[in-house]
């Protein structure tokens, strides 16, 4: 057998107290697709950053075609034929596709950019791999799927023979994802070698030849795709049998929130187009969809940070014209924002300040803040919701993602809200924290809270929601009961295909 | 009305426009280069002051005029290095750091000037650049006086503007600079070190600012005095926005601006007795603010402007 | 070499930061003094002596500190909410000229007890108005307020220059451009006889105390801090961003305007275009040295005044240009920035 094109040997990397990579080895053959499977924080991204020269490993080495790669030199990695497709695209929206692709490909001291040659080469590559794109388009005008194509083209333009894709389907629709995997298989058939990072078992099983499982910075298992199963992989990935809380049947109560033909316009664009939904006390309504399809506008509207352009919104049966944050909070709407760090917390402020910021009026008199009461409130949340790693007076930034989310959940749930708007509540959390968050949400439902769950995670929605609507291009599908939901049906709904409706028409 | 026409029709106005525009062109290009790489350089006002002082001082001590320019450029580059150290390596607030550089560079220039040049009744002077006579062209009617009787640095500034336009849009290096200002992570992913690019751009840009200052003492005037820069640096910062970060437009913007300035200077002499001269002097500043208000939303700001880049930290 | 965010900031380090910064600035300026051929320690001793060596110089230092504390507070309040008000200088001049105009043309005959508060309020309002323009431009057109406030400084000073050249010109000043004087009843009471030290210092210190209380204890304090640290998060939490910024701008501009009013009513009695030797700009340094803490502003204002007054004395005694004070003040801004950085980050390898 020939030498593998890529070998990672005994790589270790430590950040402060945490050992992000602990003696990891991995090899990749020509034409092979290897999946790197693991939870957040398992060390996948660190390992790939070492491979690509962004980090210098504490020990261990990377070999390409039997040649050792100098550590910490992205240029050397590029030259050796390693290409990286980042999860957060490394692209500049203000530049053209061609400019994005050719940055750094010519000597910086060359007196002239060879644009014509570059364009010809780009077009040839896009032809060969079926990745169609307009070289002169401004990148920011492209769809997410097209941008990813540019990201892949960029690697191929650099003559990459080893392609690393970090969570490539995170931002894609089901259909785009299927198309992407077809392309990847075609590339492998043409002799490229691929590593893709994922935590989604379905795509790993369907696409990879071989699966390497990382956990806690360690290489814990390696399986051929043909010789393993989803449950086995799940257990390997998490380290124990997975048990997320399960929804038990319930009797939903009155309609507490109703939207009829609601449109929301942000920045001159209709982000939400005449949507209808009804939310009952004691039920979870799941809104499933690929991110960027209007979820943000929906969450903002119900959180009081976006105004309605047209339509009717009924809150506890009363029509609402404009909902402010204050209205929402006093009406008993709990709000879990999609982005904890940007929306949900002021990192440099104390935990107690973050706990009371959205309800300052209940913690102040004549404009003076009651610090004692605020501290006590924060302490109660910390105790009740098992928030670890901080005291009321410490800065919230010091909390881990899971604990910060528990605090945000806590400040919303502690007063038994009548409605809970939860946008991607478990995103980016590890399995233990996901289970805790789900448990809290089901708990709230049990106590009669109406929960609107906005999520792009099929498993999450199927586990928690009583009824499910899909959001596509700012439109909502009619609801289906959870019993009728299947991965396939939801996948179709997320692509805009729901029975009796014509959502294809934009 | 005919007074206005007379002013516009006078070759002297147009000659003055080019003269007034020169420091603005150089300063705007300098600020633009920094900002294209993602660094706002509010050190400009102080760097121009220091360039004016040190360039003049070099010539006063016997250096020739071009050496004076070079010295000012080098000094500007050093202040650029300081600003880059604070904003690129340490990632400090570009606003505050730039103001710090301005305060330091201007007070330092006054200190050095006072220390090395004894106080005298009339400020000491040097012999500044003289207009060059271009055979043929300088003798043209009107145009000869209006356009072709400038000092060499003015022509140099225009050439630099065109060269920078070429650099930014037509060379791999320019693309690397733009990418660094748009998304340093992407630049890094393509093997470009954004830190190095930013350092280079800030140092080179600051060198241009130093030259902008030197033009004041080596060509426009012949002596140095404190507060002589008079907010020209801030006007340049506004012109960068007005020019949408494009060197060609920076050139046009500076000329347009200088036109209004030269026009108001001449209008002053006409309307001097009637309207207080301070109203005329306000025009450039008010104009800059108006230009900002018009362009701020329309222009495509480099996306990573004012965002510190730290490897591995998003 | 990499920088790593510190998980915890040692309290001792945070308190020591300004001291370290000032010592570093003095050390660097010391090199400049040495290059000028003067003994460094003697020069610094002379600065101290110049600032506190006599009753006169000590009161002069305190007098000089007054506008610096006020402009420092103006910058601190604004910066805390990430409103980059660099226009303190212009706001100061506008406050000053408003007071001179009002007292000489409008309410000069009022008794002190009424006239002084009225004038102080008018001076503050003038400063506010000047800052509301750039704030409006920011909220309406997304124009960076740094540049607009900077540019407005020039406009404001020219405006003042125009007024004292024309309608407000003092006819008894031998043709010198100088405003008419405020009424005697408008002058702030002296704190000490035979000195220029006046009630302005008390006003400045009291305002610092009030602000410290407001920022740490009130709803507005928390909201303006949240707005500065994370505008998006603040909006999500229901902080009225625009309104908060308007209030912040009013306080900040008002304080700078007040600095001008106090300078006229406490010291000068009239306005010239060299009323302020850059108090507005120095206020930024004062605020940064104080880490934007209102009580720290009092100390930092005093330090800055010490340098300015002391350097004048030292300059006369030793022939070092008094600009060294400006150099020290500017350097301490830079060293403070670096020092603050190292309270937040540490160096790895």
Automatic annotation (TrEMBL), chain A:
It is found in: Cell membrane. Its main location: membrane. It is a peripheral membrane protein. InterPro entries: AAA+_ATPase (IPR003593), ABC_carbohydrate_import_ATPase (IPR050107), ABC_transporter-like_ATP-bd (IPR003439), ABC_transporter-like_CS (IPR017871), P-loop_NTPase (IPR027417). It holds the Pfam family ABC_tran. The keyword GTP-binding does not apply. SMART domains: AAA (SM00382). Residues 6-241, 257-498 form the ABC transporter domain. Gene3D superfamilies: P-loop containing nucleotide triphosphate hydrolases. It comes from the Bacteria. GO terms for cellular component: plasma membrane. One of its GO terms (molecular function) is ATP binding. Keywords: ATP-binding, Cell membrane, Membrane, Nucleotide-binding, Plasmid, Repeat, Sugar transport, Translocase, Transport. Belongs to the ABC transporter superfamily. This is ABC transporter ATP-binding protein. It comes from Shinella sumterensis.
């Amino acid at each position: 057998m020939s030498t593998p094109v890529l070998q990672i040997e005994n790589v270790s990397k430590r950040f402060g107290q945490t050992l992000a990579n602990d003696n990891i080895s991995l090899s990749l053959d020509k034409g092979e697709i290897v999946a790197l499977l693991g939870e957040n924080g398992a060390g996948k991204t660190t390992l790939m950053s070492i491979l690509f020269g962004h980090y210098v490993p504490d020990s261990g080495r990377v070999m390409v075609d039997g040649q050792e790669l100098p550590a910490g030199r992205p240029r050397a990695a590029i030259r050796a034929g390693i290409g990286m497709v980042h999860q957060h695209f490394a692209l500049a929206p203000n530049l053209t596709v061609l400019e994005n692709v050719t940055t750094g490909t010519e000597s910086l001291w060359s007196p002239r950019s060879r644009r014509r040659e570059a364009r010809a080469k780009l077009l040839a590559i896009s032809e060969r791999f079926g990745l169609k794109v307009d070289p002169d388009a401004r990148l920011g005008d492209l769809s997410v799927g097209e941008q990813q194509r540019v990201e892949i083209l960029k690697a191929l333009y650099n003559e990459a023979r080893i392609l690393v894709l970090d969570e490539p389907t995170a931002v894609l629709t089901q259909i785009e994802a299927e198309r992407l995997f077809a392309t990847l298989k075609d590339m492998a058939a043409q002799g490229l070698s691929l590593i893709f990072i994922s935590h989604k078992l379905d795509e790993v099983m369907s696409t990879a030849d071989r699966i390497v499982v990382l956990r806690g910075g360690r290489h814990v298992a390696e399986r051929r795709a043909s010789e393993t199963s989803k449950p086995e992989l799940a257990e390997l990935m998490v380290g124990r049998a997975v048990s997320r809380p399960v929804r038990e049947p319930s009797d939903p109560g009155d309609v507490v929130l109703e939207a009829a033909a609601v449109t929301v316009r942000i920045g001159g664009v209709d982000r939400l187009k005449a949507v209808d939904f009804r939310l009952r006390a004691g039920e979870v309504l799941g809104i499933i969809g690929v991110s960027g399809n209007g979820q943000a506008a929906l969450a903002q509207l119900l959180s009081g940070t976006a105004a309605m352009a047209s339509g009717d919104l009924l809150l506890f049966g009363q029509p609402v014209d404009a909902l402010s944050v204050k209205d929402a909070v006093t009406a008993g709407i709990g709000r879990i924002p999609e982005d904890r760090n940007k929306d949900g917390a002021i990192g440099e402020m104390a935990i107690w300040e973050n706990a009371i910021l959205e309800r300052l009026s209940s913690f102040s008199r004549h404009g003076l803040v009651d610090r004692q009461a605020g501290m006590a409130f924060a302490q109660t949340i910390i105790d009740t919701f098992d928030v670890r790693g901080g005291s009321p007076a410490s800065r919230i930034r010091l909390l881990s993602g899971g604990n910060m989310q528990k605090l945000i959940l806590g400040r919303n749930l502690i007063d038994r809200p009548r409605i809970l708007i939860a946008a991607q509540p478990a995103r980016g959390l590890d399995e233990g924290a996901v289970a805790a968050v789900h448990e809290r949400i089901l708990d709230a439902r049990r106590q009669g809270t109406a929960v609107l769950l906005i999520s792009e995670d099929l498993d999450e929605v199927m586990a928690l929601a009583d009824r499910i609507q899909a959001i596509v291009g700012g439109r909502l599908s009619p609801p289906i009961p959870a019993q009728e939901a299947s991965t396939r049906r939801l996948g179709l709904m997320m692509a805009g295909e729901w029975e009796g409706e014509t959502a294809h028409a934009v | 009305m005919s007074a206005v026409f007379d002013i516009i029709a006078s070759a002297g106005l147009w000659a003055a426009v080019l003269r007034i525009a020169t420091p603005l062109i150089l300063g705007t290009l300098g600020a633009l280069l920094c900002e294209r790489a993602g660094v706002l350089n509010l050190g400009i006002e102080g760097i121009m002051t220091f360039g004016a002082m040190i360039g003049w001082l070099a010539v006063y001590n016997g250096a020739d005029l071009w050496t004076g320019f070079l010295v000012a450029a080098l000094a500007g580059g050093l202040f650029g290095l300081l600003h880059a150290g604070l904003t690129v390596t340490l990632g400090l607030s570009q606003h505050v750091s730039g103001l710090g550089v301005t305060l330091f560079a201007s007070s330092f220039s006054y200190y050095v000037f006072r220390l090395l040049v004894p106080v005298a009744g009339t400020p000491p002077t040097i012999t500044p650049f003289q207009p060059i006579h271009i055979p043929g062209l300088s003798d043209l009617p009107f145009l000869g006086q209006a356009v072709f009787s400038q000092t060499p640095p003015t022509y140099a500034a225009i050439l630099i503007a065109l060269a920078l336009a070429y650099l930014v849009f037509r060379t791999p290096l320019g693309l690397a600079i733009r990418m660094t200002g748009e998304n340093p992570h992407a630049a890094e992913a393509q093997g470009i070190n954004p830190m190095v690019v930013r350092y280079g751009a800030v140092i080179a840009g600051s060198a241009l600012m130093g030259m902008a200052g030197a033009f004041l003492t080596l060509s426009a005037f012949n002596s140095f005095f404190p507060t002589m820069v008079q907010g020209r640096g801030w006007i340049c910062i506004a012109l960068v926005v007005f020019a949408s970060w494009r060197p060609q437009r920076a050139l046009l913007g500076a000329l347009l601006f200088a036109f209004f300035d030269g026009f108001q200077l001449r209008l002053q002499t006409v309307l001097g007795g009637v309207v207080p001269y301070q109203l005329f002097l306000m025009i450039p500043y008010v104009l800059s603010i108006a230009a900002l208000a018009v362009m701020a939303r329309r222009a495509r700001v480099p996306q990573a402007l004012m965002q510190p880049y730290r490897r591995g930290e998003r | 070499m990499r920088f790593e965010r510190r998980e915890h900031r040692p309290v001792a380090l945070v308190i020591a930061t300004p001291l370290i910064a000032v010592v570093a600035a003095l050390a660097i300026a010391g090199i400049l003094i040495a290059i000028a051929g003067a003994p460094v320690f003697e020069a610094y001793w002379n600065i101290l002596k110049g600032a506190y060596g006599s009753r006169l110089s000590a009161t002069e230092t305190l007098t000089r500190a007054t506008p610096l504390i006020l402009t420092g507070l103006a910058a601190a309040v604004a910066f805390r909410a990430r409103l980059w008000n660099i226009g303190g200088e212009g706001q100061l001049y506008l406050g000053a000229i408003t007071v001179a105009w009002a007292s000489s043309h409008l309410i000069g005959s009022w008794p002190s007890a009424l006239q002084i508060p009225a004038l102080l309020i008018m001076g503050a309002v003038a400063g506010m108005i000047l800052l509301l323009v750039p704030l409006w431009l920011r909220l309406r057109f997304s124009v960076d307020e740094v540049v607009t406030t900077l540019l407005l400084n020039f406009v404001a000073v020219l405006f003042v220059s125009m007024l004292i050249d024309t309608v407000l010109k003092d006819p008894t000043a031998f043709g010198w451009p100088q405003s008419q004087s405020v009424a005697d009843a408008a002058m702030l009471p002296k704190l000490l006889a035979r000195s220029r030290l006046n009630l302005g210092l008390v006003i400045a210190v009291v305002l610092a105390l009030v602000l410290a209380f407001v920022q740490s204890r009130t709803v507005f304090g928390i909201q303006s801090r949240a707005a500065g640290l994370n505008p998006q998060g603040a909006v999500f939490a229901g902080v009225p961003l625009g309104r908060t910024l308007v209030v912040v701008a009013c306080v900040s501009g008002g304080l700078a305007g007040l600095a001008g009013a106090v300078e006229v009513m406490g010291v000068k009695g009239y306005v010239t275009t060299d009323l302020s030797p850059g108090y507005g700009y120095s206020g930024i340094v004062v605020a940064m040295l104080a880490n934007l803490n209102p009580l720290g502003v009092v100390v930092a204002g005093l330090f800055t005044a010490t340098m300015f007054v002391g350097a004048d004395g030292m300059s006369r005694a030793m022939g070092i240009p008094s600009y060294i004070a400006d150099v020290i003040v500017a350097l301490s801004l830079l060293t403070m920035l670096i020092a603050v950085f190292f309270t937040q980050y540490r160096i790895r390898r």
